[in-house]
Amino acid sequence: LIIFFQSLVMLACLWLPSTLCQTSSPQHEQLKFRLAGYPRKHNEGRVEVFYSGEWGTICDDDFTLSNAHVLCRHLGFVEALSWSHSAKYGAGTGEIWLDNVMCSGSETSIDKCLSRGWGNSDCTHEEDAGVICKDERLPGFLDSNIIEVIAKHNRMEKVRLRPLSAAHAARMPVTEGVVEVKYKEGWSQICNVGWTARNSRVVCGMMGFPSERIQAKKPNSHRSVYRIHSVACSGNEAHLSACTMEFSTNTSSACPGGGPVVVSCVPGPQFSNGRGRKSKLNHVRLKGGAKAGEGRVEVLKGSEWGTVCDDLWNLQSASVVCRELGFGTAKEALTGARMGQGMGPIHMNEVQCVGDEKSLLKCPHKSITAENCKHMEDASVKCNIPYMGFEKTIRLTGGRTQLEGRVELLAPNASSLEQWGLICGDGWTSREAMVACRQLGLGHASSGLSETWYWDSSNVTEMVMSGVKCRGDEMTLSDCQHHHVVSCKRAGAQFSAGVICSDSASDLVLNAPLVEKSVYIEDRPLHLLYCAAEENCLSKSAVRANWPYGHRRLLRFSSEIHNVGRADFRPRLGRHSWVWHECHRHYHSMDIFTHYDLLDLNGTKVADGHKASFCLEDTDCHEGISKRYECANFGEQGITVGCWDTYRHDIDCQWIDITDVKPGNYILQVVLNPNFEVAESDFTNNAMRCNCKYDGNRIWLHKCHIGKS
Which residues are connected by disulfide bridges in this protein (predicted)? Predict the structure, then answer.
């Protein structure tokens, strides 16, 4: 019936232009969609559309579930569960872009549906439509669903600190200056009459600083244009536009008895003069983000790290996290595991911070049970951080896109912007590439390349850095270890380092409790170990054994390797480069996928094993996620986001040969992707350690933990 009616309407469009017609946007118009309003969860809210350079809403007249289906797909969800009328999530602002929208539900875009046309409405914002989407993401949909600062952009486009002098401007970050607000006609100042430290706290938070200094210097004489007066903030706002203030329409408005606002901010330890030093141990951390100041929120309770559920997650709570970690306020409070799903416990739910708490753990919240939340609801943040200008000292050349190329650094002490140099490719891995992409502001690393002869498009030939070795969490390559004097084994620009950057990356994590539960010892006859010996899965003493008689003592356990990132984990080499192993009759897509080590209490290795990726595939996945990779019939190998690859305890090489190990106390260590062959968003969670007790006949594991847990 709806389709029949729509057909009649389309015929009517030919004769009566004032009736409902297709909403087609102008050619090249890029529509954007978001959910807004409060209170709400990440998969529901008032629908807002970005059209013609402005955000607006959709009227609820004639709204149906079919409309909601189309809009939810725009937002990255598979379908709609229901919709709401009469501004359930609060009245919006700005234009009401669409009215009397009628979709069949199969349209690929809302502008393919019928309506009165863009900007043609007889509604008020009390009729704004909302949707509730099914909490299941479309495969490959990466855009974040953001709970945004509700800033009145017509009043305040941008805020900056203008340094007090040229000397101040030369130092990064700029911590002190005149507060200026951007308008279409230029920059203007704020009158400082009635200005308080709480107001300064808000401005400093926007600039990426956790706190303000009480005293600020007076500016040099400078002609001021005042547009904002009588600002009054509580100090907990995430953006100055959320404070009350008076606006002047007169561009030459005076500030009787005062002058322009000047603030002075205190930088966090990562951005202070001693930038390399470690900050104090926090009970909160961010994981999985590409840039400094962003990631999945994790909290330490007892001795175990866990995540935060996104119910009621907002900018106030997110800002407490950001300030606690030495950043400014939050610019985005992200829900729905937008920075990847965590593992282990979910420690907090329905967090409701006021905004002045010193730690997230001090905020009112609920402890939860498994029924309340799942890791698909893990909360994340993007914090305001100070501008440091790091990207000005690094560039990429020769690549096919702006995301790839040979890495060039501005030479130390360069007096000219043209004095660029190369990085020696010796030892360059995806960990170093991760830092390079972060410094460039290009997200995660997809690959780190130690040869770049195919990107030879620059006349830069001098090596200015070598021996680079990064942890992976540094903000710049100069923060990593490197040679004081350049020393490169392979001369020539073709052996310089390169990167391919990406907006997403995989992240492998081992299921530590399963290792602890599944461990046992097997005395395996030598005649069953010929294939394992061929693949170097036995200790060196095995070559002296009396084959095929006797046995080897094996420490066996199961491994369940989860991909909790935002991109599939794929072998670096394509199928044409995989190696066939006749004995086990399978392809190896990676030379080394996992290291298994038994260490003494001093950290010295007493026995080891290694595991080539016999076959990377999706053994199982979380609900709603489909398997993509299967090894049978020379299939594609990998681990899908939200899936895991299980290596059972009873398959070949899933062990450490401990035939020569004496009884005692040891440490079992398992390291995934040990050579950093494949890029990940986080390498600090690739290692698992367990305390191990071996009495000569039996073995026990306890306190198995990931990374720095």
Answer: 59-123, 72-133, 103-113, 191-255, 204-265, 233-243, 309-373, 322-383, 353-363, 470-480
Q: Which two tokens stand for residue 540?
A: 């060196």
Torsion angle of alpha carbons 145, 41, 682, 430, nearest 10°? -10
SS3 sequence, 295-315?
Answer: EEEEEEECCEEEEEECCCCCH
CA distance 590 to 586: 12
- Which of 84, 74, 7, 9 shows the shortest CA–CA distance to 41? 84
Which of 79, 275, 41, 263 lies closest to 163, judged by CA? Answer: 263
CA atoms within 13 A on the CB side of 322: 36
DSSP count for the chain of H helices, then E strands: 8, 42
Alpha-helical segments (H) within 397-478: 430-440
Q: Sign of the CA dihedral 477, 686, 618, 612?
A: positive
DSSP-derived pairing of the beta strands 420-423 and 463-465: parallel
* Residue 90, both tokens: 């609060």
Model confidence pLDDT, tens digit, residues 591-650: 788 999 999 999 999 998 877 667 889 999 987 788 999 888 788 899 999 899 999 999
Residues 543, 545, 549: CA angle, nearest 5 degrees: 130
Q: Are 678 and 572 contacting, i.e. CB atoms less than 8 angstroms apart?
A: yes
Other beta carbons within 10 angstroms of residue 447's beta carbon come to 17
Structure token digits, residue 150: 């509700």
Element (H, E) at 73: helix 65-74
User: pLDDT tens digits for 449-499?
Assistant: 999 988 877 788 899 999 999 998 899 999 999 999 999 988 888 999 999
Indicate if the alpha-carbon torsion angle 444, 447, 448, 449 is positive or negative: negative
Report CA Rg, the chain: 29
Instruction: Give the C-alpha distances (Å, rounded to integers) separating 468 from 146, 292, 473, 578.
Output: 36, 20, 14, 29
The one-letter amino acid code at 499 reads V
Q: How many CB atoms lie within 10 A of CB 484?
A: 7
